[in-house]
């Protein structure tokens, strides 16, 4: 979990980076940007709001050989060790971004490098570095008043309600490549920001493993449980899977299989599916890990718990009490109508 409300922008450098393949050039500011009291809160909201509203999928700097050869990792480490050098190092970061701006679809724009204080992550207060880029310019009207006449003229500027690209690097887990959050609103070249510039991989922590394992379960339910049984059992399987994660702090695969898979015939199918599909989810050797509650909550919101019928009727299952569906919903076949049916038992209709 992160908390950015108390974050302070200690220093800010602004440069302009063009598209190198179009010979647009680069402009490096000679000194840090001095913000006034009016602009500071607006810039802070511009930079940080997208990260507060975004699901926390962490990354980490990665290199095929060694992190010592990772340019951005070294620049960031230097700033964390000597914050007074932030502006000079920001020029190197801007040049590094410029060198990656070779794809013809990449737009020129302003790059902002901020040294941030008082970020909270995993109940720890740390410093951070923000790297942000604005690419899209919008037209707006400006007005001037002369005597009894109001004149309008057109200008272009950056919309402070939308950050185009950004990364937050938290000063934690340095040995693993730091913890990094990223956004990219304008995917002209999806590899440009994450791979070419940031050079990151997914941060493999309990949040990562919880999400990946639940996604694996969701696909197993769709690919194996549904064809072997029916939609009701697919939904109930995911009900049990999510509830197992929700009530446990530590995941143990053997306990999960015993509790969640009702049909014994599906146990070998589950093991076979994992053997075949695990590399896709990066859970090949994963049988035990701490469970991240925030990831469980996020997964519960995404997983559909509805049976949709071709007669324009929906049956919504209860994720919290899946035993209700097992007790009070029956599926059958009507010979006369040659149709399947669901029989639902209840005492009274609830008032909405």
Structure description:
This protein has 352 residues and is α+β, with helices and mostly antiparallel strands. The chain has two domains: 2-203, no CATH class; 207-344, no CATH class. It is built from ten helices and 17 strands. Strands 1, 2, 3, 5, 6, 9 and 10 form a seven-stranded antiparallel sheet that branches. The protein has a two-stranded antiparallel ribbon with strand order 4-11. Helix 5 (206-228) packs antiparallel against helix 6 (231-247), helix 5 (206-228) packs across helix 8 and helix 5 runs parallel beside helix 9 (293-302). The longest helix is centred in the middle third of the chain and has 23 residues, at 206-228. The model has no long low-confidence stretch (mean pLDDT 90).
Query: Strand share of the residues?
Result: 25-35%
| Spatial separation of the terminal alpha carbons | 34 Å
- Whole-number average pLDDT? 90
What form results from the Cα inertia axes? elongated
Q: Give start-end ranges of low-pLDDT stretches.
A: none
Write down the secondary-structure element order: EEEHEHHEEEEEEHEHHEHHEHEEHEE
Number of DSSP strand runs: 17
Biggest sheet features = 7 strands, antiparallel
Helical percentage = 25-40%
Structural class: alpha+beta
Tally of distinct domains: 2
Count of discrete alpha- or pi-helical segments spanning 4 or more residues: 10
User: Radius of gyration from the CA trace?
Assistant: 26 Å
């Amino acid at each position: 979990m992160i908390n950015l409300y108390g974050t302070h922008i200690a220093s800010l450098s602004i440069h302009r980076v063009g598209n190198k393949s179009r010979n647009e050039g680069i402009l490096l500011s000679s000194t840090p940007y001095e913000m006034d009291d009016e602009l500071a809160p607006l810039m802070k909201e511009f930079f940080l709001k997208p990260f507060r509203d975004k699901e926390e999928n962490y990354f980490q700097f990665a290199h095929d050989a060694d992190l010592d050869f990772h340019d951005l990792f070294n620049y960031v480490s230097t700033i964390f060790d000597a914050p007074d050098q932030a502006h000079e190092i920001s020029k190197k970061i801007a040049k590094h971004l410029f060198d990656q701006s070779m794809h013809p679809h990449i737009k020129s724009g302003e790059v902002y490098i901020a040294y941030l204080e008082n970020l909270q992550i995993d109940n720890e207060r740390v410093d951070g570095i923000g790297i942000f880029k604005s690419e899209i310019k919008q037209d707006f009207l400006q007005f001037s008043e002369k005597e009894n006449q109001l004149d309008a003229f057109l200008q272009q500027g950056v919309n402070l309600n939308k950050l185009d690209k950004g990364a937050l690097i938290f000063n934690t887990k340095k040995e693993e490549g730091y913890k990094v959050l990223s956004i990219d609103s304008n995917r002209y070249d999806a590899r440009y920001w994450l791979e070419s510039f940031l050079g990151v991989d997914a941060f493999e922590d309990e949040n990562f493993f919880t999400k990946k394992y639940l996604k694996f379960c969701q696909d197993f339910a769709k690919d194996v449980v549904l064809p072997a049984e029916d939609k009701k059992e697919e939904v109930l399987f995911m009900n049990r899977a999510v509830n197992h994660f929700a009530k446990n702090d530590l995941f143990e695969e053997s306990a999960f299989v015993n509790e969640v898979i009702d049909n014994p015939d599906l146990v070998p199918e589950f093991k076979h599916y994992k053997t075949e599909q695990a590399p896709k989810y990066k859970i090949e050797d994963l049988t035990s890990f701490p469970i991240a509650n925030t990831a469980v909550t996020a997964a519960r919101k995404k997983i559909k718990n509805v049976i949709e019928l071709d007669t324009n009727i929906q049956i919504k299952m209860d994720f919290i009490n899946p035993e209700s569906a097992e007790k009070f919903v029956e599926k059958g076949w009507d010979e006369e109508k040659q149709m399947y049916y669901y029989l639902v038992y209840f005492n009274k209709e609830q008032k909405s």
